[in-house]
Amino acid sequence: MAEIKIAKVEQGQTKIRSVPVAVTPEGFWCCPSPVAFQKTLKSHHSLTKHNKQSPPPQPQLPKPEKKPSSTTIRSVIASDEIHQNSANSDTVHSIAVPATVQERPPRQKVETLPRKVAIEFGEPGSSDAKVILVGKQGFCVKLSVHKKVLVDHSSFFAKKLAEKDSVFACLEIESCEDAEIYVETIGLMYCKDMKQRLMKQNVSRVLRVLKVAELLGFSSCIQPCLDYLEAVPWVGEEEEEKVISSILRLKTEGVGVTPVLKRVACNAVDPPKETLSRIIELVLRSKEEKSRREMKSIVLKLLREQNGANVADNFNETIYSSCQNCLDSVLSLFRQACEGEKPETDTKQIAVEADNLTWLLDVLVERQAAEEFSVTWGNQKELALLHEKLPLMSRYHISRVTSRLFIGIGRGELLPSKDTRLLLLTTWLQPLFNDYNWLQHGCRSFDGKLVEEGIGRTILTLPLEDQQSILLSWLGSFLNGGDGCPNLQRAFEVWWRRSFIRPYSDRQANGSCHTDSTSKE
């Protein structure tokens, strides 16, 4: 808060803008519209730039003003002039025009725009103090106010006015950054229902009022502002951040900021792990396909954003528990399908559970915790055996889980051990070959190129003997199945070069011979 001091206003230097003022029965001044106030500020800025760029205009004699035809306005002007001469000969007040009388002011040129605005609060001619707000650009707002109102509502003004002995006090606030909001906030001191007044404002403006109210020690205004912010919706993350940062900066004691902050933080009864577990369970057990698919996408995105925030570190246990439940359900459905019980119902449920497993695997991959899942999937011997007995339409969804694992290994998203990689290929590669043709033509989300690349890279991570065994088995399937089998030719070429063109043993031998010949020389 800038220093407040007594200011002497020299007669004849103040240019006053007559602002229409409406006075309510209880004496409350209705603030001029923010648009009109901002236009005055903009006009002053443009005037300042104009004066810097061009020489000052030649002085002209003022044109004689036309007398107003309304006797009401003339009587108001006369009474206002009498009050000015009797109360303060050095101060000029604005005309307080009743709300019922409206006269359109003449349009002013840029050169004649005012540098000062005068506003009067309460009943016309009853003020006993002035507050002058001086902006950084020299713009000035002069407020005719009442000491009792300032003292009753503002601890800041009460302290400053207590230091003044004069009957008519004049306080000046220099370098005022937000003169418009100062005017609005002081006007709220005359308002009996601040909540009703604030309802007409937006969040950004109320935050500005809250800041000024705290600087002025206007505690009876701070709480209505907080009540407004607690009830009104916040639009967008940027506005939410502004509200929270403004609330956290409040230093006034005894104000209730907790209701506002509860919107973004709470002392939850359930720990995050239990809440996340409930969300996962609700998503997995949804009966509506579209809603389930949309919520899976949203939850995965939110978990990806929180991955580096160490939120619920033990959340992986919940995911693995859900994975085990899905696996048990799939195994039970496969057994029922093999026995011929409710084949259509089993097929639909198998598709749902396989999709759930794929989504849970995506979550684990994002959290870099999918290695244990690869071990569990590789050990599903019974499920792989039952897979061969089921019709293609009932079983192919399971191969999507296998495909996702190979893609993850090929990308380096999960790093299972050598034994686990070999176990996955031994258990699930042939079932994937059997379903591959249908996956390519009957599954929209299946990316054959990506799966083939993942399988090939996974094979090439194994020892050379295992590469040979798996790729020779693939070669037989590919030569018989053609496009119905994954195309692993690139992996086959790499294995061929490693084995026949320049084996590592030959390179090692050449290197040792070169070393021996060098030593002999």
UniProtKB/TrEMBL annotation:
This protein's UniProt keywords: Ubl conjugation pathway
Known pathway: Protein modification; protein ubiquitination
Entry keyword annotation includes DNA damage: no
UniProt biased composition (Basic residues): 42-52
Pfam family, one: BTB-POZ_ANK-like
Segments of this protein annotated with the region Disordered: 42-71
Keyword Metal-binding appears in the UniProt entry: no
Domain At3g05675-like ankyrin-like per the UniProt entry, residue ranges: 276-502
Function: May act as a substrate-specific adapter of an E3 ubiquitin-protein ligase complex (CUL3-RBX1-BTB) which mediates the ubiquitination and subsequent proteasomal degradation of target proteins.
Protein name from the UniProt record: BTB/POZ domain-containing protein At3g50780
Native species: Camelina sativa
Biological classification of the source: Eukaryota, Viridiplantae, Streptophyta, Embryophyta, Tracheophyta
